[in-house]
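P.,

For your records, the input lines for the assembly:
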Amino acid sequence: MVKTRFAPSPTGNLHIGGARTALFNYLFSKHKGGTFVLRIEDTDIERSKEVYVQDILQGLGWLGIDWDEGPHFQKERMDIYREHAYRLLREGCAYKCYCTPEMLEEKRKVALKEGKKPTYDRTCRDAHDRASDMPHVIRFKAPLTGEVSFNDLVRGTISFRCEELDDLVILRSDSTPTYNFTVVVDDALMGITHIIRGDDHINNTPRQILIYRALNYPMPEFAHVPLIHGKDRSRLSKRHGATSLLEYRNEGFLPEALMNYLARLGWAHGDQEIFSREGLIEMFDLPNVGKSPAIFDMDKLLWLNGHYIKTLPLEDVAERLVPFLEGLGLAISNREMLVPITANLKGRARTLKEMAQMAAFFFLDDVAYEEAAKQKFLTPATKPILENFLEGFKGLRSIDEDEQKRLIENMARDYNTKLVNVIQPIRVSLCGRTVSPGIFEVIGILGRETVEKRLRRAIEAIS
RNA sequence: GGUCCCAUCGUCUAGUGGCCCAGGACGCUGGCCUCUCACGCCGGAAACACGAGUUCGAACCUCGUUGGGACCA
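Structure tokens returned:
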């Protein structure tokens, strides 16, 4: 039975990179019919914040990555880590180290000066007075020679020489456990079979393997996926605007689009670009994950988001649009208009936020005219066009597209001009700007009364 | 600096020795459609980092170089 986990530290928001790691774990476990665990690694009391925990939980929930088990909190498991540390001590796999920070700093300087590596010199490793109650840390006793290697599911065999590894601290002098120790204890106890994480952890892996062995717990599989990079090719961080996932939600992205994008970033299944959640679960597997870091590309995300806006059920998109309209302070007087408006705008907007902005004029009878549009199309010269149109419009038997079109075509003929010259003044009158959906559709949605009202207002605005 | 990892169009990638003088997608660009703007459709430019080697044959295998990244300090 496959079991994966996502184990973020609540020291920051859940950003794109973390979300992708979570997604890969989620997809892999579902693909294999296994379970997915969420664990919050909040042992760093200083930097861990409840708001970040909430951000992570909400972000995952919004994306639609739900966990089968957890969230577990490491803070609540401190005793377990201590027990394990003392067990290693008892069994001779660890030792108490009484070196003070000052001593260590001194040794580091000396080593550096002599051109040696600044690793711990193992002074206390073979000392005998282990009963002392003086302040001490507990260090893991790493093998002095040999090699640690593992088969990474995305990279293949990776090996490290033990000479490179030093005796890392597993329990600090204040009795708090360190990162490399807690992960191993938790992953082992929770029965995690596949550890899928960012490749910034590759260097931690050999130490962790050694701890697994010392603890005599079954070894999981490892898969290190490349990090997502910013445009400057360095790891995505705050200065790239690596903000919360929820930020994407607020900007009007759809979780379907983001999931699709994240999955395709560093993973592919032939030439296919569009994947539903179900499709991803069916197709996703580790061997297809790329080895090199990927750069986040907003343009492609926008394109995908536009694709989902176009293809998701209209009613659904309309429903999701509402909060964005409200966000603009618009009173949605007529909910009947929502679906037709969505149908109109879905081909033009790439985000829900954009769509709301484009839709604003539908809800505002006293729509503001863009200055340039007004200068050009609401002038004494176009006034008669608007007056004639209003007159003709009132006499229309119905306002379906054919009727409207006939009226405007006749006018264009009378004025001996092109359709566009008749339409633009009308468009500005109704929408306040020169860009909008097709004018016949706009009129159809607005309805007789509103159209007449807005035309009159525009005519007045000229004089 | 040490260790480890990576390397196909600007970007995401397909490609696992002959199907590739390299395919798809975003972006860019020319055109069509058209009441504006989009959508859509048709077309175009654009890449195997470099050098050796293995082989009848290399984007694919090996070595080196260069470049990039991560971690540690």
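Two observations worth noting. The longest strand of chain A covers residues 35-40. Residues 427 and 435 of chain A are 8 Å apart (CA to CA).

Regards
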